[in-house]
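Schema walk-through. Below, the input block comes first and the output block second. Nothing else is stored per chain. Lengths vary across the set, and this one has 287 residues.
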Amino acid sequence: MEKSIVKVTESAAIELTPKTIKTYINQYATDQEIALFLNQCAMFQLNPFKREIYLIKYSSNQPATFVVGYEVYLKRADRTDKWAGMESGTEDDPKTGRPLKAWAKVYRKDWTACLYHEVYLEEYIQKTKEGEPTRFWKDKPRTMLKKVALSQAFRMAFPDEFAGMPYTAEEMPVDHAKLPAAEVAVEADPIRAELEADGQVVNETGPQIPGKFEHLDRFAKAKKRLGNHLYYEILGTFRYKHANDIPVNGREKVLAVMNQAREDMKEMKKRSTELDLQEDLPEQTGP
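--- output ---
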């Protein structure tokens, strides 16, 4: 099975294993929960170090919960090339002035009508043990409810892309105040990561899962060789902003173009050097 090297920063990567999940993601998760979590990461190409997916468990005596970040749904819908936009809003209870429900519309380029969906506050509001709304649902009930409506609408509009994917945190009994927003700070050896990605270092014992991120070190090297301008220009020709956005089946094609651009640069440099040498040669006169 392939290695899964997860990109953490531009210069550091780390292998996704049960050990790294225990160390950096959640210390309370059991081996079985970690195995399921790794499977979710691989199946949907989600990077836990970028907070695309969360393993939530606050003590060893409670079950783990997997949720994804709301932005993941937006990115995946956009990646289909069929998403044509969205709308959302809320309606308040005329008696109390409090939000009653939220609605969402999702448009597809290949549909003549939008998908319309509604959700009601009483069905999704998250509460504390004391029966009070949790902080985010108390302070931003409309925002939270719109995210629920949009997430569900996206799943219905793009069933192939979202089938089986974990729900968003807004839909689950999760305390958002406890969810870390910043990316995971990881100390990794970039040299070892590159060697591992090239198959030059034997991995530690543990399941190795295929994923989206094992090639990102190659993109980092391509960026260094090509320079920022040409690197992002090539990504732009494929309609990507970052290497992270490239689907698995499109990576090799983009890398091939980058490698060819590198070879063209080398050839141009070689020709330029040859011309410079010719100009430096003394002019030959007649006998």
